[in-house]
Design goal:
The protein contains three helices and four strands. It is of the alpha/beta class and 109 residues long. Strands 3-2-1-4 form a four-stranded parallel sheet, covered by helices on one side.
Length: 109
């Protein structure tokens, strides 16, 4: 799996706006204390959540610079979503918005 280049990241961020789906996700996860967001992009949803532990993960390093600004209380990690360095049951919730279609079926376990 490969990430997006800087041009693709910039284009996505310029067009990414808050949506009713974002609002619903925030409402659903607002009481969770440990959340991992796969494919966090610019961190717009993560920045609205206030868990004790918020980890923003993306395979594209360019997105993480935006996530640091939009979700400053989070920890950012550049990683392939299929190869994350976390033990089982670390998180109460895992969020993956607009990510799964980027994972090639032959790579899934």
């Amino acid at each position: 799996m490969t990430g997006w280049n800087e041009t693709e990241v910039t284009r996505y961020v310029a067009g990414r706006k808050a949506s009713p789906v974002d609002d619903r996700v925030v409402e659903t996860l607002r009481k969770r204390s440990r959340i991992l967001e796969l494919g966090c992009g610019p961190g717009l949803v993560a920045g609205r959540l206030m868990p004790d532990l918020m980890v923003c993960s993306d395979i594209s390093p360019g997105f993480l610079s935006f996530a640091r600004v939009n979700a400053p209380a989070s920890t950012q990690i550049c990683a392939d979503p299929l190869l994350l360095p976390f033990a089982d049951a670390v998180f109460e919730a895992v969020l993956a918005m607009a990510v799964l279609h980027h994972i090639e079926p032959d790579l899934m376990p």
